[in-house]
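Need a sequence for this fold. Nothing fancy.
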């Protein structure tokens, strides 16, 4: 999939930066080296071929960019393809608003990040995690209600953005569930989640690096925005991070992890250019 146009302005700018260095170097070389007249045409075409090759390499690199480092209000931010479970520091895992742990493809899908965490990376029985969440010292304002009418799953409902620190994981209440246990969230609720999440992280990160997924990618449909892309979600995450009070002190940093199957739909060159004011 081509994410960057062949004659994209940023590709041209990078090409001109490189060729200006090459041209300056060649200008110095020809001051001391005589090129035989009969070879000038061959060298000329060779030089043009080299320029075309350099342009193609820059364009291909731009389309296959899978990691960028940017700065947002003084915080170091990395956006890259990877596996969140192998990142250093704290790792955010999105749960639903009940902190359900039942992986049955009804409440939690087994191939969701939430399901993979419970099935493959939980180093204790699920019941132990349930007790840990039940006994966790949540703030009073973070507990919305006890939904006794709920037939399957847990009954205590939490404010979106609420965080439960469990070992090296930040378990966070993200998606809301309807009466049929279908994950739904509106755009205002998504923004509310992100703003609450960054504020909670600011209180608990203890100068450790934090890794997150692209929240909302493959987990829940955002009501009224069926066609919103992962790149759009990523941009919203970065925007809410910028306007929040969350700031990572060096050497701690924020890392947003993109699933390898999603990178073809995300133009990291656009993200990097926007943050650098290009």
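Here you go.
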């Amino acid at each position: 999939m081509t994410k960057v146009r062949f004659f994209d302005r940023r590709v041209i700018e990078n090409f001109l930066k490189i060729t200006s260095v090459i041209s300056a170097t060649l200008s110095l070389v020809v001051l001391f080296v005589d090129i035989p007249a009969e070879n000038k045409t061959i060298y000329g075409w060779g030089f043009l071929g080299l320029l075309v090759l350099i342009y193609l390499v820059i364009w291909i690199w731009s389309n296959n960019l899978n990691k960028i480092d940017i700065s947002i209000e003084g915080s170091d931010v990395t956006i890259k393809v990877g596996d969140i479970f192998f990142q250093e520091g704290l790792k955010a895992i999105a749960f639903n608003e009940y902190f359900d742990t039942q992986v049955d493809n009804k409440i939690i899908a087994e191939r969701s990040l939430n399901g993979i965490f419970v099935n493959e990376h939980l180093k204790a029985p699920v019941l132990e995690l349930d007790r840990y969440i039940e006994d966790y010292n949540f703030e009073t304002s973070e507990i919305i209600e006890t939904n006794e009418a709920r037939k399957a799953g847990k009954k205590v409902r939490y404010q979106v953005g609420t965080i439960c620190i469990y070992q090296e994981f930040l378990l966070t209440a993200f998606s809301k569930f309807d009466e049929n246990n279908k994950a739904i969230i509106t755009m205002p609720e998504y923004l509310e989640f992100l703003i609450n999440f960054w504020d909670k992280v600011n209180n608990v990160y203890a100068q450790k690096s934090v890794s997150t997924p692209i929240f909302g990618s493959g987990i829940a449909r955002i009501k009224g925005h069926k066609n919103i892309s992962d790149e759009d979600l990523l941009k919203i995450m970065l925007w809410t991070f910028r306007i929040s009070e969350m700031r990572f002190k060096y050497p701690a940093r924020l890392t947003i992890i993109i699933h390898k199957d999603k990178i073809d739909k995300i133009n990291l060159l656009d993200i990097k250019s926007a943050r650098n004011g290009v």
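For context: The chain has two domains: 9-63, 67-275.
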